[in-house]
Write a structure and sequence with these properties.
Mean pLDDT of chain B: 88
Low-confidence stretches of chain B: none
Helix content of chain A: under 10%
Radius of gyration of chain A: 14 Å
Number of helices of chain B: 0
Mean pLDDT of chain A: 92
Strand content of chain A: over 45%
Order of helices and strands of chain A: EEEEEEEEEEE
Strand content of chain B: over 45%
Shape of chain A: globular
Oligomer: heterodimer
Distance between the termini of chain A: 41 Å
Largest sheet of chain B: 7 strands, mixed
Helix content of chain B: under 10%
Distance between the termini of chain B: 37 Å
Number of strands of chain A: 11
Largest sheet of chain A: 6 strands, mixed
Low-confidence stretches of chain A: none
Number of strands of chain B: 11
Structural class of chain A: mainly beta
Structural class of chain B: mainly beta
Shape of chain B: globular
Radius of gyration of chain B: 14 Å
């Protein structure tokens, strides 16, 4: 079956660095996505990995290891506005029109 | 670019009534649209995949006669919750995939969601 695991909750302080892990077991693999979702709003795209390694985009970086079925999202210089839910999602096929499979999300609380 | 809108953004209805939610891709054509449902503090659960001009593909456990999906054009898909009940209260989110792959890093664009409350 399809399974995506990530921690339910994390807390951190402003200015700190936090790493949110995601492990996946899917029938196929054609990319891993990270989305940010604030309460009551739709997810917004953060990053995408399809090859092993680290993708850096400003304060956010995402890492992928396909052999381990593992990814992490790294958030640096945390700000209060980073308090949100972070969703790990996998696309399990390269066929057009393939939906993403989402994990349950990690709720990050940033305090001052 | 790549904006998806949903209407209405929130709706309150009585039990037994039907509610229609629209999902539009505003600046691109979408061959495929997806409908997700999200309960409080839960992740997005795929309900169905909607392809323009053909029948939707429903996920296991989703009643196709209760959640009617129509994808009549390349920019519009609708989800109708028929005979809604309180347990259908949820956050419904659509996403759309462009006709031609935009940068492959983000091939699904999400709408802002519709909050449905059934009394």
């Amino acid at each position: 079956g399809q399974n995506i695991d990530q921690p339910t909750e994390m807390t951190a302080t402003e200015g700190a660095i936090v790493q949110i892990n995601c492990t996946y077991q899917t029938s196929g693999f054609n990319g891993l996505f990270w989305y940010q979702q604030h309460a009551g709003e739709a997810p917004t795209f953060l990053s995408y990995n399809v090859l092993d390694g680290l993708e850096e985009k400003g304060r956010f970086s995402s890492f992928l290891s396909r052999s381990k079925g593992y990814s992490y999202l790294l958030l640096k210089e945390l700000q209060m506005k980073d308090s949100a839910s972070y969703l790990c999602a996998v696309r399990d096929s390269n066929q057009a029109g393939t939906a993403l499979i989402f994990g349950k999300g990690t709720t990050l609380s940033v305090s001052s | 670019g790549a904006v998806v809108s949903q209407h209405p953004s929130w709706v309150i209805c009585k039990s037994g009534t039907s509610v229609k939610i629209e999902c539009r891709s505003l600046d691109f054509q979408a061959t495929t649209m997806f409908w997700y449902r999200q309960f409080p503090k839960q992740s997005l659960m795929l309900m169905a995949t909607s392809n323009e001009g053909s029948k939707a593909t429903y996920e296991q456990g989703v009643e196709k006669d209760k959640f009617l999906i129509n994808h009549a054009s390349l920019t519009l898909s609708t989800l109708t919750v028929t005979s809604a009940h309180p347990e259908d209260s949820s956050f419904y989110i659509c996403s759309a995939s462009p006709l031609r792959d935009l940068p492959s890093t983000d091939t699904q664009y999400f709408g802002p969601g519709t909050r449905l409350t059934v009394l």
